[in-house]
């Protein structure tokens, strides 16, 4: 029987009481040859062995844990190894930490402390080594060391099932998802969902997408039917939730986000969060914009690039309403502001290099 034990401990610090989560390795999911083994020195007399090896097709362990607060956690890893071996630890699919261990004997359990950053709610922790054999894992504990400060520029989480679901995409049960639900059966042109988010400050936002996928699948995120970013997802198992980050420009006011995969199947989506990164209007180098002038203007804005053809310009007001669309197909063009009200506008400029946003001021 799989078992996760909650133990309360008192830390001798000014933080007072802190909750410690104890997770037995055998409560996780085993892949590609990893096995449960008897272990007289281990808690519950079990451990996970045959981890790692000199190929990608070697054994690994994935444990799903839920924590009440986001922050840095102290992991105390219990292991056995009769020689120095490394185990790689990755949380939610992000860059792993390599941990070198040696307990002196395969029948002796040692401990190693590691700092991990976890999100509030569900997290997936993967233990693996794709180049050499790893140690055996008995259990690990997690204790909150430093709580993440309140992020005034963060939004969410937004549960996928609370969006607008376009059938045949469906809401599905999911034991490892927050709220126990996810959106699945997504992909191709007609299977997707949208979610409206209200933004106070226009700029570039990082979208943290919690997903599950047992194979390589791409996810595309489109904002306001104008800007699309994409990334590859693989959480190693349909019952494991990882996090994919994508950066996208959003406007002040309401933004409609579309989660989809044109021409193929999508991963399942649990939820997503937003984090503000930077304001708009200061990233012209990426498209080699030579000049945008005059700005402010009373009549027109001239737009020139160094060597990129401008295929599309979409202009939005600060509430996110599209007020103008141009298709110049040239290195140089102009935006006629004569019919626009005084105020601030955002122009999204598309070339073969990419998409950039600039702030325009109409006097």
Structure description:
The protein is an all-beta fold and 363 residues long. The chain is built from no helices and 30 strands. The strands form 8 sheets. A 5-stranded antiparallel β-sheet has the order 1-2-12-7-10, with no helix packed on it. A hairpin with a 6-residue loop joins strand 1 (4-10) and strand 2 (17-24). The chain is elongated and about 80 Å long.
Question: What descriptors fit this protein?
Answer:
single chain, 363 residues, mainly beta, five-stranded antiparallel sheet, 62% strand
Class from secondary-structure proportions: mainly beta
Strand order of the largest sheet: 1-2-12-7-10
Q: Strand-residue fraction?
A: over 45%
How would you characterize the largest beta sheet? 5 strands, antiparallel
Query: What general form does the structure show?
Result: elongated
The tally of beta strands, per DSSP, is 30
Q: For the residues shown, what is the average pLDDT?
A: 86
What is the H/E order? Answer: EEEEEEEEEEEEEEEEEEEEEEEEEEEEEE
Oligomer: single chain
- The Rg value, from CA coordinates, equals 25 Å
Distance between the termini: 70 Å
Query: Uncertain runs with pLDDT below 50, 5 residues or more?
Result: 1-17, 281-286
Please bin the fraction of helical residues. under 10%
Query: Helical region count?
Result: 0
């Amino acid at each position: 029987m799989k078992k996760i034990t909650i133990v309360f401990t008192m830390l001798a610090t000014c933080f007072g009481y802190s909750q410690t989560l104890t997770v037995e390795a055998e409560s996780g999911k085993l892949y590609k040859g990893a096995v449960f083994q008897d272990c007289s020195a281990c808690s519950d007399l079990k451990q996970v062995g045959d981890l790692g090896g000199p190929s990608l097709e070697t054994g690994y362990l994935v444990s799903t844990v839920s924590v009440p607060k986001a922050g840095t956690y102290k992991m105390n890893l219990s292991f056995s190894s009769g020689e120095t071996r490394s185990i790689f630890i990755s949380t939610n699919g992000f860059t792993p930490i390599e941990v070198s261990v040696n307990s002196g004997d395969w029948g002796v359990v040692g401990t190693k402390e590691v700092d991990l950053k976890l999100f509030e709610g569900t997290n997936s922790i993967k233990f693996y080594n794709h180049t050499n054999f790893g140690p055996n894992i008995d259990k690990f504990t997690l204790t909150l060391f430093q709580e993440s400060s309140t992020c005034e520029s963060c939004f969410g989480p937004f549960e996928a099932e609370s969006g607008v679901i376009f059938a045949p995409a469906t809401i599905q049960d999911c034991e490892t998802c927050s709220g126990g639900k996810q959106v699945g059966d997504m992909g191709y042109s007609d299977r997707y969902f949208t979610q409206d988010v209200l933004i106070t400050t226009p700029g570039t936002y990082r979208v943290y997408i919690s997903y599950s996928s047992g194979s390589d699948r791409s996810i595309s995120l489109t904002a306001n039917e104008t800007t699309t970013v994409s990334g590859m997802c693989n959480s190693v198992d349909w019952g494991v939730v990882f996090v994919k980050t994508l950066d996208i420009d959003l406007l002040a006011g309401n933004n409609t986000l579309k989660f989809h995969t044109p021409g193929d199947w999508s991963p399942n989506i649990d939820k997503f969060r937003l984090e503000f990164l930077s304001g708009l209007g200061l990233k012209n180098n990426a498209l080699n914009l030579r000049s945008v002038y005059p700005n402010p203007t009373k009549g027109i804005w001239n737009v020139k690039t160094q060597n990129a053809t401008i295929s599309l310009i979409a202009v939005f007001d600060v509430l996110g309403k599209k007020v103008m669309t141009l298709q110049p197909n040239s290195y140089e063009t102009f935006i006629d502001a004569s019919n626009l009200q005084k105020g601030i506008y955002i122009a999204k400029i598309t070339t073969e290099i990419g998409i950039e946003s600039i702030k325009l001021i109409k006097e």
